Amino acid sequence: MTSGALLQTQVVEKAWQDPSFKAKLLADPKAAIQEALGVVLPDHIKIKAVEESTDEFYVVLPPQPEKVVMSKIKPAGIWGE
């Protein structure tokens, strides 16, 4: 599992277990993740949190590979600048 997938799993599990975290996650996802999980996210990273329902879901399209600028991965985190 990648670091990003692991973080996403942790966020989802915490939201299911903690209604106050879930509310904050939906209102201010970056602050909620930083406060609850201690993950420091760079200023240039934006996060959107939405809640699926039983009759609605979202498809997230990643950037096209040829448009992605490769950056050096920093051992301290997954959000390389």
From TrEMBL:
Domain of life, source organism:
Bacteria
Question: Which InterPro entries does the UniProt record give?
Answer: CN_Hdrase_a/SCN_Hdrase_g_sf, TOMM_pelo
Q: What is this protein called?
A: NHLP leader peptide domain-containing protein
- Molecular function terms, GO-annotated: catalytic activity; transition metal ion binding
Q: Which organism is it from?
A: Paenibacillus barengoltzii G22
